[in-house]
Amino acid sequence: MADEPLVLGIETSCDETGIGIVRGHTLLANTIASSMEEHARFGGVVPEVASRAHLEAMTPTIEAALAGAGVKFSDIDAIAVTAGPGLAGALLVGVAAAKAYSLGLGVPLYGVNHLAAHVAVDQLEHGPLPRPCIALLVSGGHSSLLLVPDVAEEVISLGSTVDDAAGEAFDKVARVLGLPFPGGPYIDKAAVSGNGTAIAFPRGKIDDGTFDFSFSGLKTAVARWVEAREASGESIHVPDVAASFQEAVVDVLTRKALQACKRYDVHDLLIGGGVAANSRLRALAQERCDKAGVRLRVPRPGLCTDNGAMVATLGSDLVAAGVAPSSLEIPADSSLPITTVHV
Ligand code: KG4
Ligand code: ZN
Predict the structure, then answer these.
(1) Which long-range contacts (CB under 8 A, 24 or more apart) does 44-48 make?
(2) What is the pLDDT along the chain (343 residues), one digit of tens a residue?
(3) Residue 266 burial (CB count, 10 A)
(4) Whether the Cβ atoms of residue 61 and residue 93 lie closer than 8 Å to each other
(5) Which residues in 90-124 are b (16+ Cβ under 10 Å) and which e?
(6) Which residue, by CA, sits nearest to atom 13 of ligand 1?
(7) Which ranges carry the Gcp-like domain (predicted)?
(8) Domains of the chain, with CATH numbers?
């Protein structure tokens, strides 16, 4: 609707310079410049390289988003930006840019939490979030289970990873298997022709009564398994290893997510973050949700991975809720807790 605020969102917490433009919950532009190619040869994101890439990509990406949305700077009603968590230097570029645009355009600034933004974005595709819902956020940087009474006001952490994030485990196991970085999509693809029950890899913290995750033991188990086969000169069937590893990850993720739904008597589960693109995670989550009478919401892959539209969406919710804008003094906070939805 034309009377809803036009919000520009800026995301720079990792390697993606994401600029999103929304009007209310209508997506007008979601433009992304990624520096992933510059990191691939290091097998992981190099923070300083990411920060410089954000600096170079910021202005052209904003201009491309405005052109794509068919709007002008003067049409913008508010600026939202990821204030944390994420890489400190990378966040700093986005926060500084957002302050400059807010000041220059004379519009309010909203510093938002990256994780809450991953939850909010689903509304662009599936409409307003049920209150409450349970959210499982799985990416290269985070694995969290959240109880979300109201994404603009209150997000409660039920648990998170105690070591590696789920996507990080995918990336590390891919490296062990000689697959490119980032490894998640390659494991997903290799696993299609593999047998997920071929190898019984450990399921960390499963049924321990908490909503925390642990993936480093699993990652080590896969590495040891591969090393042992290599040492004895046996050939390794990559699809079976990929499928068995993937099965261990998604089994734990979906099991804990549904345990949380049951514990809190919540009937809506949302899955977000880059790992939500995983085909087996989506299939198993759907299967288990159907069995438990839980409705499953997973945004399309382009909205699951880091992007600016998610930040703009949460900004739009904050404007709609009448939340006071952020001060121009807000810091970039690399360890911003999920309980702080906006700063
Ligand atoms: O959300 P995201 O784009 O960035 C952050 O880390 O915040 O997530 C990237 C992660 C990487 O670890 C990547 O390997 C993983 O998401 N990923 C996948 C798949 N696609 C991306 N993991 C498993 N299966 C996939 N299909
Ligand atoms: Zn993310």
Answers:
(1) 44/171, 44/181, 45/14, 45/15, 45/87, 45/140, 47/87, 47/88, 47/89, 47/90, 48/89
(2) 568 999 999 999 998 999 999 999 999 999 999 888 888 778 778 888 889 999 999 999 999 999 999 999 999 999 999 999 999 999 999 999 999 999 999 999 999 999 999 999 999 999 999 999 999 999 988 899 999 999 999 999 999 999 999 999 999 999 999 999 889 999 999 999 999 999 999 999 998 999 999 999 999 999 999 999 999 999 999 999 999 999 999 999 999 999 999 999 999 999 999 999 999 999 999 999 999 999 999 999 999 999 999 999 999 999 999 999 999 999 999 999 999 999 9
(3) 18
(4) no
(5) bbbbbbbbbbebbeebebbbbbbbbbbbbbbbbbb
(6) 184
(7) 27-312
(8) 6-121+307-320 (3.30.420.40), 130-298 (3.30.420.40)
Ligand 1 atom with the smallest distance to the CA of 181 is: 14
Query: What residues have a C-beta under 5 A from ligand 2, the ion?
Result: 139, 306
Global pTM exceeds 0.90: yes
